[in-house]
Amino acid sequence: MKFSELELHEDVLEAISQMGFETPTPIQEFAIPKILENKDLIACAQTGTGKTAAFILPILHKLVGKMDTTIDTLIIVPTRELAIQIEQEIQGLSYYISVGSQAIYGGGDGKNWEAQKEALKDGTDIIVATPGKLISHLQMGYVNFKHVKHLILDEADKMLDMGFSDDIEKIVSHLPKERQTLLFSATMPPKIRTLASKLLKNPEEITLSISKPAAGVSQNVYLTLDNQKVGAIKHILEQKPEYTSIIIFTSSKSNVNEIVFQLKKSGFPAKGISSNLEQSEREEVLSQFRSKKTRILVATDVMSRGIDIKEINMVINYDAPHDAEDYVHRIGRTARANTKGEAYTLINEKDMRRMQKIERLIEAEIPKLELPEALGAQPEWKVAQAFHKPKKNFKRKFKPNKPKSE
Hints:
The chain is an alpha/beta fold. The protein is 37% helix and 16% strand. The model is unreliable at 384-406 (pLDDT under 50).
């Protein structure tokens, strides 16, 4: 299928063509017609499959010829990085259309607040917002959502994981009841179903490749002690001098600076990014990484869904993420748009069970590689056989309750 077959406005198709796209991804092919038909939608697809364009393109189609500046579409996202990314994509895809947009997120200066206030009060076609900052504006009493026709929840599973459920419901209470609601998520746990039942009306459903890494990602694991991890990363980097774009993910903010320090000490220039940085600093780090001025970026899990940078060669997981689904999002930063990429994960003895949960989720066993001898002996993979076996000599500590009739 070609984009031209999706009945999008010619100005939208022109922008798509100028950006070099001809064929829609599966999520775009299935979602765009349903959105154009004004149906509520639950769409589940892994990261890197083109979900953002799947909802932006039909919204832009509907906005062609809109004469007023009222807020037509509200997009709610978990992180400021994702808000910025989506707003930038809107600007690119609306090049031939008169469409206004504004990202609403925290961490900026007074000028940012005033620009956000003006857009929310006086109107702009599309608002992309993080829940917390949008709530702050709503509490001031000037937000005008009377004309909102489309509500989009992107990365809904991540928002619920971050505790935004109540905030989302509070925001929705300010919206017209008659609207189109679209929910996009990389995973579909029961709590997403519960949220959808509250917000959507007779939704259509699309489910594509839940929690599976892109086919182009080559995955490997190194079993390591904690004091071997930096050495393992150096070994991996030394094998790939031609790679110009590498991300190292860690579950802990406290690890970011230490990893950066150790890499720089060994001659591998790197920069770190986490929520500890001011927004302007984070944007500068991402800008340098995007332009290839920074080769190695060290980031926390919160960043894994907010980084939209093409041609990332390799992802290294300093540790196993707490949630198996986050592994898919981490390594989903590479091998995007049918390209190739590599992913390495460093697993200590404590993380072995997490790694096995990841393997069960993706329904594949990831190869375990041998560390270089110079790094010393590595742990053995012990979990696979014992993970589900009950403990021997197990005895009940409590007697069963007696039946009530006795």
